[in-house]
Each structure stands twice: as C-alpha cells, then as structure tokens.
Amino acid sequence: MAPPKHTAAPDGPAPLFHADSAVCPPLADYPALDLLADLAVHGQTQTPLTIGLFGDPGAGKSHALQTLAKRAQGLSAASRPGGPFLQGVIAVQVDASSLQGDAASGLASALHEALLAEDAGSRLAMAAVEAATDPHAAAREAAQNLEDIRQRHLAEQKTLEELKGRRERINETLLFETSNNRIDDYARRNRRRLEGGFHRFGFSGDAIALYKDLVRELLDRPGPRSRLSAFGNSVWAYGKQASLLVWATALFLLGWALGLVERARGDLLAGLRATMEGAAEPANWIEAHTHWLTYLSNAAITLALLCLALNIWRAARFTMPLLQGVRLLEAEADKRRADLDGLIAWQAKQADRLGAEAQNLSALAQATERRARERIASGGPSARNPFATPGAEPKGLDARLYLDAIQQGLGAQGAPKRVLVLLDGLAALPAPQAAALVDAAHHCLNRPGFVLAMAAQAAQLTAGWGGAAEAARRIERYVQAPFTVRMIRDEQASIAYAHQLLGAAPEWEASPLDASSSALDRPIKPVETHLLGKLAGFAGETPRAMKRYLNLWRLARPLAEDSRALALMLALDNGASAGELAAMGAAMDLEEPDAPLAIHPGEPRLAAALDAVNAMRLSPLTNGEAHEAWMIARDFSIPSA
Question: What is the CATH number of domain 29-80+87-133+394-505?
C-alpha cells in the first residue's frame, strides 16, 4: 500500500479491541476502489462483469469489498437522469457459506431478500417468482414426491421387519441356511465320529444334517433342564440304550436274589433235610458249594454295573458333541445377533427419518396446494422469500429460472437497472469448496445486468482448481477487472493506519459523493489511441487479451500521472514473455530514478515498445516513472499463488 494522501475520518469512537472482520477503520485513501465502484454502476459498463479483489489473508479484502459496495450504492443513490451512473442498482450481500450445496438457490435467496427491501425491486421479485413457478405442477410434483417417500418408508419398514425376523430365526439360519459358521465347521471336522455315534444309536442318513436337527431340538428346550433332558434321552431313548438298562436291571435283581439265597442257606438246607429223608446227601453237597452263590451274585452285580457304565459312556459320547454344538451355535448367534441389532437400530432410524420426511412432505404438499389455490384467487404470488432455506425451495420453483426472470426484468419501467452481487467469505471454506463455489457463482451470474464483486485468495483458488496454470486460466476467463489488495509495506501507510485504529483525529474528511461525473469518462486523446494501437499486439494475440488490456488501461488510467507509461507496463504485464519481464526488471534501476529507462539488447519487442512510448513523450521515460507505472499495472494483473 502506498503512503495515503489523506486519512479518512473515523465513523465513531475507536473500539477498545478490534475484531478480525470487515467492520474496521478504512485503509486510508484507496482511489482504485473508487474506480472499481464507478465501473460497477457506470451506465456504459457492459455486463456481465466480474470484479475480483484478491489478496493474502489479512490484507483487507473484505473491507475493500465493503468500501467498494458503499461507494457503488452511494453513487447509484446520488445519480440523476443524464448522469454517468445508473439509478436503481441493487446491492446483494452474499456470504459464501450460505451457498454451499446449491449456489443457485442461495444466490436467489439473497437476491430476493434484497429486492423485497426495495419498492421497485419487490415487484420484480414477485414477478420473477411467478414466472419461475408453476403452482399446479408444484402441487403435482409435491404429491408425487410424497407418494414416493411413503413407498420408500413402507419398503424401509418391511426391511426392518425382515431384519427382526432374521434375528428371531438366527439359530435356524445358522444351522440350515449358511455354511460359513463355527458349528458347520465343527460338524465337518468331526463327521466320522458323528456318523459312528449316530449309527450305534440307530440313526441313518446324512450325519451333518442329523447333527444339526438334534442341536436344534436341544435349543428348542431352553434352560439347564434341556441339557439334562438331552442326556436322559441318550441314556434310555436311543438305539440299544434301553436294552442295556434292562440287562443291568435283570442282573441287579439276579445278584440280589443270589445274595438273598446265600444269606438264607442254613434255613433252606435245614428245611430240605427235614422234608425229605434222602435229601441229606444233596443238602450236604449244596452246603459245601454255597460259596459259589457269592461269586455268582458279585458277578451279576458287576455285569449290571458294566451295562450301566456302558450305557452312560455311550450317552456321554452321544451328548457331548450336541452340547458343544449348542455352545458354538449360541456364541455365533450372539455375534450375529449383535450385528443384526446394529442393523435394526440403523434401519429403525432410517424408517423414522423417512416417516418424519413423509410428514414434512405431506405438510409441504398441502401448503403447495394451498398456494396454488391462493394464487388463483389473488392473481399472483405472496410477498415472501420462497428461497429462505437454500436447496429447500418449494417444489415447482426453479432458482435458475428465477434468475433468468430477474435478468429479463432488469431495466423495465420502475424496475432496478443492475444487480451488484458482493461475494465474501470464501476464505472460510476448504479450497475445493471455494473453487467450486466460484465456478457455480460465475455460471449463475454470467448474465447481462449482473455485476459480481468477490473477495478471494489466489492461493486458495489455485489449490482448489488443481494448479497455478488452471487457476490463471479460470481467473482470466471469469474476472474482467482484477485488483490485488496489497499489504501495508510503507512506513507512512503503517503510521496512518495505526492512527486510524487508535481513533486519532482525522487530517481530512471525505467530501460528499459526486455522481455527476466519473474519472473513467475522461476522453482518450488521439496520441493515446495511437500508442495503444501500437502496443495492443504486445499485450496479447487473442481478442480477449486485447480487450482485457484496453479495459484495464481505461480503468487504471486515472491512477497514473503518465498514461503512456501505464500503457507500456500493462502491455508488458498482459503479454510479455518471461525474458521480457526479466529485462524490464533489470532495466528499472531505482538507484537512479531520474535516469532514462534503457532496455538491454536481446529483447527487440520490448525495446520497440519503449521506443513507441518515448516517441509520444517530450522526454524519455525514466526509471522512476516506469516503476510507478509498473506498481499500478501489477495491482490490476491476474493474481498468482
């Protein structure tokens, strides 16, 4: 920032502590912003036009944007018929964060609010809403959307019920409908053992299928008793288990009977001798061999115990795999059930969300139908902002059709003449979003009657667009009037701005706006036309480059004491090669500001351009004059990261 010629008056007492916002003391006398404001509201400015205020973080872009807007609004308000500036310019303040998601709706919302605040603009706003809205189509679309969301809600409810059913049938699913689980793996690894056990118990068929059936039957009887019941069934209900129990019982009875006979042998033998005279000898033989009764009794009991042990062992071998299968299945089911619980919870939220959305759409459909009836009765739309929530405007209202209607209505009898959109807040967004938003804003506002003035960081857009080359290409295509807000590098400017922040008494107060003339209207002299024609080819070879060069010269000319030196430097900045730029940088020797500027050999185009400038002057261009013109030209150049 160059040292200010004047210090603007503070609007009020200095704050105790300054916030980092656009509401701060002005950056002294910054005439370039006045020229940009003149350009925005000048009647001879062709639109669409984009003004780009670029700068590093903290350089004062937002404040510069507000300064430009304040002057533009003041010029429009103070203009009179026949003057250079348009009356009825609508200024629209837009924060970039409000445009995320749907830039067209956000811009339409901000524009509609600004138009409703003006008497002339409110009629245009309502007419644009009417032109961009078909209430009957909106009502039909809202009803169709309501039906669609209800069908989706029913589908989500059905899915929720299916998930709940799957949770209830998790055991059957794991046993019979899936194979990628632990119980199926266990059954395959122990197939031979299971086949042997089932064969011994009289089962036939596929061992794995039988195993899963038995596990399911075991799970159908929940609780600890089910395990005991399964073991009990395996003791007596399957295969030859019952016969083993019968044999054990018979042998126990036989052993008990033999033991009873052995204990009562004396009485039995005495009775035998008494009843029969010839039974003495047999009785004596029996008495001599009664110890065999003990052996037989013990043998019978031992065999009974063996039968019982064999029964229990066979039952245990049959039951243990089933219990292991139950444990594996329960563990797997618990895991799957937990996953299903999460899905059920998420699905329930989806169903609830769709239910709430259906309720909202039902209310919206009713409101849309009511609006259609009101429009028929009243003959027009209501004076409200239908874009109050960006991206959620009533069905049947198209934001881009609304902008088209505004464009067509500008300049009509009693309507605004131009729309000035002031876009700020890009720095608060991530680089990709900021770059995408600039693309969207340009797409929406690139229409006659619209002027876009935005504050942006070149480095942020470069990162968002994927490189310096692409960023330069888009900025050159989008922005017709670039301006770089420089940081304070001069001691006097620093002192002046510090005084402003501290609320020091002003040295000068700005005079009232003069809307009767503009510095941009200064006539072009024939000598300037001749020089610009000679330098136009140096500035660029395309029509766009030549147009940009002449536009920027006309815009920056009031800032330069020598318009011919400015013409050379703007041509150099717009179309010179890297070698020509380096040659000019080496030629401007600031240690000798009054010495004539001399281009070193090797750059004939640059030397010829300098000769053309000197031919239009009374004296050769000096280093100091060239540097002053270069500092102005670089402020209006395409910024780079």
Answer: 3.40.50.300
